């Protein structure tokens, strides 16, 4: 296995950027999600997980963010870009099945969760500091999808790992450790439950509801506290920091 793609997202929920190499610490990839958009009216972190309000974030590049006034005009709400999460920062996650059934403009049910999960304090991650997917999973979704393909950017992974086995192989990595390059060691924590974000337009890539429907039909996984969820990719924490580059070898440590 090798590192095929390294991608970071300088501003949460905005488009990301590919890099050829990066250092990874307990706070994730250097330069990843170091800022976020704050909804002034609610005090919540803006996230495309609530498409009705924030799908427009996915038309913007995190490396070239407009000023607060222009950004507010573009999004139709007063916002500001922050680099420190407010105390108890929260975000809204629309119920994915309702978004599929009623559309991205519908006012659907949502859940509210705190930003951070198992990530270090002061970060903007939804849950964990690293999210990765395999080429096997992307190939499986593409083959099962009506379009016959799917774009990795829809799932917003930090790392795409080149793998040869068929199917959703990283499901079996939960609880295991990955060595990447000469230094980095990750612990795989849980499969990644998918929200409505993969279905949305990402830059020039149009909407694709099947990016979620296909996963919901073919890879539902029991997640503690959540139940059966459509999953693609896995979340990881950093056990040993290190620098990585594309092409680095990836080794799955033996279980136990």
Helix-strand layout with pairing:
Blueprint: E1 2-8, E2 17-19, E3 21-25, E4 28-29, E5 36-39, H1 51-54, H2 68-75, E6 79-82, E7 90-94, H3 96-102, E8 110-114, E9 130-134, H4 135-144, E10 159-162, E11 177-180, E12 184-193, H5 210-218, E13 220-223, E14 227-240, E15 242-245, E16 250-252
Parallel strand pairs: 9-10
Antiparallel strand pairs: 1-2, 1-10, 3-4, 3-15, 5-6, 7-8, 9-14, 11-12, 11-16, 12-14, 13-14
Kindly describe this structure.
The chain has 256 residues and is α+β, with helices and mostly antiparallel strands. It has helices spanning 51-54, 68-75, 96-102, 135-144, 210-218; strands spanning 2-8, 17-19, 21-25, 28-29, 36-39, 79-82, 90-94, 110-114, 130-134, 159-162, 177-180, 184-193, 220-223, 227-240, 242-245, 250-252. It is globular. The relative contact order is 0.20.
What key attributes describe this structure?
15% helix; 256 residues; nine-stranded mixed beta sheet; globular; alpha+beta
């Amino acid at each position: 296995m090798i590192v095929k793609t390294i991608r970071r997202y300088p501003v949460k929920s905005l488009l990301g950027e590919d890099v050829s190499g990066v250092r990874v610490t307990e706070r994730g990839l250097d330069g990843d999600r170091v800022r976020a958009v704050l909804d002034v009216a609610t005090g919540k972190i803006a996230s495309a997980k609530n498409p009705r309000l924030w799908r427009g974030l996915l038309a913007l590049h995190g490396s070239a963010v407009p000023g607060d006034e222009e950004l507010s005009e573009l999004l139709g709400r007063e916002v500001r870009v922050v680099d420190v999460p407010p105390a108890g920062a929260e975000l809204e996650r629309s119920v994915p099945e309702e978004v599929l059934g009623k559309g991205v403009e519908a006012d659907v049910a949502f859940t509210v969760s705190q930003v951070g999960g198992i990530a270090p304090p002061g970060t903007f991650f939804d849950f964990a500091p690293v999210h990765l997917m395999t080429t096997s999973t992307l190939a499986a979704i593409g083959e099962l999808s009506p379009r016959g393909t799917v774009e990795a950017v829809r799932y917003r992974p930090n790392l795409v790992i080149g793998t040869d086995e068929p199917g959703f192989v990283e499901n079996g990595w939960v609880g295991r450790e990955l060595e990447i390059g000469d230094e980095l060691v990750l612990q795989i924590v849980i499969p990644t439950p998918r929200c409505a974000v993969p279905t949305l337009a990402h830059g020039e890539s149009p909407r694709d509801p099947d990016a979620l429907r296909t996963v919901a039909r073919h890879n539902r996984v029991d997640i503690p506290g959540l139940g059966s969820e459509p999953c693609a990719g896995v979340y990881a924490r950093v056990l040993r920091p290190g620098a990585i580059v594309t092409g680095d070898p990836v080794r799955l440590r033996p279980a136990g």
